[in-house]
């Protein structure tokens, strides 16, 4: 049947695309883990935790995709393919978060590099006047170059993440597509969450449990009871996981609210600095220091927004049946 053959070809091409995406996501996960390690070495515990959380989300997505690809490759089970496609969409949402996180950090890193190059110029001028050693100037240059390299590395990681996101969205890496920002988190989504009702819905929708319950069984009563206990344990595990996702929503909202308050004062301070700069009341060095501090604070606020948004998305996905 030509129609059946066409559907099979389309199905197999989709599986092949998913396999390619899975491999690329695994590579991105490794890069995010390295980024987390770099942040940890720099003493940025929050930044390390943020990247480690995104790497962990990709790890679980890769594992789930791999499992579903193996199951779907042998047959065109509707449930398996539906779960795979949900996983791809959920992963795309996480990659959007990763891309915008990298973008925020790159902007702050570029501002830090600009400041470092200014400090190098100052050290160079002082060395020319005999007020500083040439070694001090060379150390300032090396520090500036390192910060510039850091910003460039974040740009490269942005481009890698963008290419994978385009692939998941059905584009090619060469397509001229701009990646937009994350939506501003809507706290009313959290206010509308009904824990008891949502966890019951998650229990009924959960892909893993549906597969366990729906599988055919033939065996002794002892084996049947063992199977029922296994399903019951899986339900308890799902409940615990769902509770953890809800707690992450609560924690993320608190962090986002704190970051928003800090941003309000940061915006006010930046307006004052900008006005002083226009009036010629600040040196270039002072302006660059203030600019770096402002963008650093803006990055923290933006990343808190992203975490809150992704936490609510993860909760909603779990409610619909896909739990990471």
Query: Percentage of helical residues?
Result: over 70%
Rg measurement, Å = 25 Å
The gross shape turns out to be: elongated
Please describe the biggest sheet, giving its number of strands, its sense, and whether it closes into a barrel. Answer: none
State the order of secondary-structure elements, H for helix, E for strand.
HHHHHHHHH
Count every helix, treating DSSP H or I runs of 4 or more residues as helices: 9
Q: Runs with pLDDT <50, length 5+? A: 1-8
- Quick one: how many beta strands? 0
Which structural class do the helices and strands define?
A: mainly alpha
At a glance:
By secondary structure, the protein is mainly α.
Structure write-up:
The protein has 324 residues and is an all-alpha fold. The protein contains nine helices and no strands. The protein has helices spanning 2-41, 45-74, 78-128, 134-168, 187-191, 195-205, 207-214, 221-278, 284-320. α1 (2-41) runs antiparallel to α4, α2 (45-74) packs antiparallel against α3 and α3 packs antiparallel against α9 (284-320). It is elongated and about 90 Å long.
Question: Which tags fit this structure?
Answer:
mainly alpha
How would you summarize the topology of this molecule?
Elements: H1 2-41, H2 45-74, H3 78-128, H4 134-168, H5 187-191, H6 195-205, H7 207-214, H8 221-278, H9 284-320
């Amino acid at each position: 049947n030509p129609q059946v053959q066409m559907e099979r070809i389309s199905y197999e091409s989709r599986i092949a695309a998913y396999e390619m995406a899975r491999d690329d996501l695994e590579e991105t996960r490794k890069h995010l883990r390295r980024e987390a390690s770099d942040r940890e070495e720099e003493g940025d515990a929050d930044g390390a935790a943020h990247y480690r959380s995104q790497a962990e989300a990709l790890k679980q997505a890769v594992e789930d995709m791999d499992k579903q690809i193996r199951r779907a490759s042998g047959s065109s089970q509707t449930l398996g393919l539906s779960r795979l496609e949900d996983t791809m969409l959920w992963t795309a949402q996480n990659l959007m978060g990763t891309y915008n996180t990298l973008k925020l950090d790159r902007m702050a890193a570029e501002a830090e590099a600009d400041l470092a190059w200014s400090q190098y110029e100052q050290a160079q001028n002082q060395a020319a006047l005999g007020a500083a050693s040439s070694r001090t100037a060379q150390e300032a240059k090396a520090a500036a170059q390192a910060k510039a390299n850091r910003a460039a590395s974040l740009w490269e990681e942005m481009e890698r993440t963008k290419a994978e996101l385009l692939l998941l969205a059905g584009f090619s890496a060469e397509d001229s597509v701009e990646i937009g920002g994350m939506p501003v988190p809507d706290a009313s989504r959290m206010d509308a969450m009904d824990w008891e009702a949502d966890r019951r819905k998650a229990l009924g929708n959960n892909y893993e449990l549906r597969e366990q319950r729906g599988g055919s069984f033939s065996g002794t009563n002892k084996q049947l009871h063992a199977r029922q206990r296994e399903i019951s344990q899986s339900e308890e595990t799902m409940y615990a996981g769902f509770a953890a996702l809800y707690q992450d929503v609560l924690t993320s909202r608190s962090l986002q609210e704190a970051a928003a308050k800090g941003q309000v004062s940061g915006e006010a301070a930046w307006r004052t600095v900008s006005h002083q700069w226009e009036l010629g009341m600040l040196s270039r060095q002072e302006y660059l220091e203030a600019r770096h501090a402002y963008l650093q604070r803006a990055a923290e606020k933006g990343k808190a927004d992203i975490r809150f948004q992704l936490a609510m998305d993860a909760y909603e996905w779990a409610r619909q049946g896909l739990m990471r």
